Amino acid sequence: MSEIVIIDSGQLALSLRLPELGMPEILSFGAEPVEADPLFEIERSSRVNGMDIAVPSNVLLPTGGMGFFGWPAIAGHRGGRDFVAQFGGWTVIRDGNQTVLKAVDSVARLGIAITLTAHDSGLISMATALSNLGEADYQLDRCMAATFLAPAGDVQVMSFTGIWGREFQTRRELLGNGTWIQESRRGRTSHDRFPMLFIESETQIFGVTLGFSGNHQMVIDRTDDGQRLVHLGELFEPGEIILAPGESYHSPIAYAGADSQDFHAFVRDELTQWPGGKMSPRPVTLNTWEGNYFDHQMDSLKAQATAAAELGIERFVLDDGWFGKRDNDTTSLGDWDIDARKYPDGLKPLVDHVTGLGMQFGIWFEPEMVNPVSELYKAHPDWALTIEGRPVLESRTQLVLDLTRPEVSDYLFGKIDAVLSNHAVSYIKWDMNRDLTHAAGRDGKAKTAAQTRAVYGLMDRIRAAHPNVEIESCASGGGRIDYGALKRTHRVWTSDCTDALERLEIQRGASVFVPPEILGSHISASPNHQTGRRHTIAFRALVAIAYHLGVELNPLELTDEERDELKVYIETYKRLRDLFHAPGASFRMEPLDGRYVWGAASAEKIVVIVAQGPQMVGEQPAPLRLPDHVTQFGGQWRIKTVLPAGPQFIRISEGQKALLSGAVTFALSSAGLSGLPLPMLTPESALLLELEPIKGGKTHG
């Protein structure tokens, strides 16, 4: 009987049969593993004009060319030969929760190793390594990291699209008979094609994501029997991956999970490497960008820091404009020396002032880019990624530095290291503000894949030299949010758009795969700098408060009334952040008639945030039915706190007033069955409800 290999995370199980020749056959992928059975040995016959020997179509990483007519997950050649791969002689190596499947193609002289891991969080991950065992170069055109199996029948895919300032817009579509493909060629995760999907059928729901920040492919291919193979992997430029004899290609890691909570748990427990081994409470951050832009004046910045500390802010981040002769975004990227015009005594007086107030100090870098108007480019124009004879294409007046060259990476490390070594810096905002185009090295060959890995290498080097410094991944906002970047960073800037109305959808989408404490969300000025909309402090604060809260304005420009109100929300965040960011506590609900609902829950406290985006169409809002995993705490509860004190309701009944004042106690189960009859909010307003259990009552069951 064939060998059966089971990868079981407790939430998902992948069951494989290893053939004598060919790729591992997927027997099942779902909640339950299979057991060895004679049924799995029965060959499946095809139509009369099909292959005489049955060829399984539901396999890991199908290679094509030997009776498999679907989309090949592995493709390449050796000077036009060895274009067909057929692996055999499978061996299984187990080490704890990790399983490695190895095989060889003795004809094409290739070796393969597929690493499968069952994670404690419930995720299953997969990665592929392909080795050239021959004596001549092998051009690898495609090598997916992973394949997962989706059931037959009606299957819906949820993907994410967007643009700058409107990231993580969810899209749902029903899969047809053809092949579904999403590809990104931007050289970064992108704003429009995130490598994240949720697959939903009548019998199964699961999500997949690729942990990689460069070009990617996600393909869903229909098999002969109506099921679907979901492939994830890196997208290569032509001729980008050529393996010399003895060389190997190692794919990124792809992940599959049953639900958002499992993905969140993986990010928290395994992926994110915190200084000291444990996440500290996420500090309230003041970022100086929208409050100052390039206008850096020492006295004003010190005064802003003092005002920030008085508001309860815990981290001060000096954004773009502190280096070179950086008075606008057309100059000085690459010249990472402190601007003596703005800082005649260096940065130390500002850093000392900030840390003396008890705050952490952070600073902005964009290491991967260079302005043509810079001392660095003047000295080393050959350090930029370009193709000889082609136009030098700028984006945001920037070019991309070739980090694959050791001298470039060493230069950048030296400049960043000097700032971190000579100042009490706790945090880097690491930005990347342009896509990669015709990215080639001096030899004219594509460098996108190597560039992505070189960025990782520089990040890893900085982390090793300064292990107590946290890094935020920013790429024109949310352009580099993926599990490859998150392995090396501690926060992402979710979007450059700080408009609270836009953030409702952006943050809802991003939180499918990323836990709230990782997603930066700031209270910015009104009118908003990106959209011109005007919103109350209450709306701006409540939309941001459940995530990693920050402030994006000049605190000296606030009125006394605004300062007092902002301080209330900062204090509320500090009081509730342990709950907002607790493992398994957060929840979010699908928007209903323009109403967005999210929050966090424990047996001791439930926090519900309700935000009305567009105006409701219904005559009355539907009662707010809390999710099952919130109501499972049971018992009698009441509303203890409402923020703001005077929410913007269109109309409110006496009974609703009693409910919100805490005069009404109710069974938590009823809040799930019939729901909370809340008043209708005016458009673009919000409220926060704190629910507490009635002491002495039943709180479980």
From TrEMBL:
<protein>
    <recommendedName>
        <fullName>alpha-galactosidase</fullName>
        <ecNumber>3.2.1.22</ecNumber>
    </recommendedName>
</protein>
<keyword id="KW-0378">Hydrolase</keyword>
<dbReference type="InterPro" id="IPR031704">
    <property type="entry name" value="Glyco_hydro_36_N"/>
</dbReference>
<dbReference type="Pfam" id="PF02065">
    <property type="entry name" value="Melibiase"/>
</dbReference>
<feature type="domain" description="Glycosyl hydrolase family 36 N-terminal">
    <location>
        <begin position="60"/>
        <end position="243"/>
    </location>
</feature>
<keyword id="KW-0326">Glycosidase</keyword>
<dbReference type="InterPro" id="IPR038417">
    <property type="entry name" value="Alpga-gal_N_sf"/>
</dbReference>
<dbReference type="InterPro" id="IPR017853">
    <property type="entry name" value="GH"/>
</dbReference>
<dbReference type="InterPro" id="IPR050985">
    <property type="entry name" value="Alpha-glycosidase_related"/>
</dbReference>
<dbReference type="InterPro" id="IPR000111">
    <property type="entry name" value="Glyco_hydro_27/36_CS"/>
</dbReference>
<dbReference type="InterPro" id="IPR002252">
    <property type="entry name" value="Glyco_hydro_36"/>
</dbReference>
<dbReference type="Pfam" id="PF16875">
    <property type="entry name" value="Glyco_hydro_36N"/>
</dbReference>
<dbReference type="InterPro" id="IPR013785">
    <property type="entry name" value="Aldolase_TIM"/>
</dbReference>
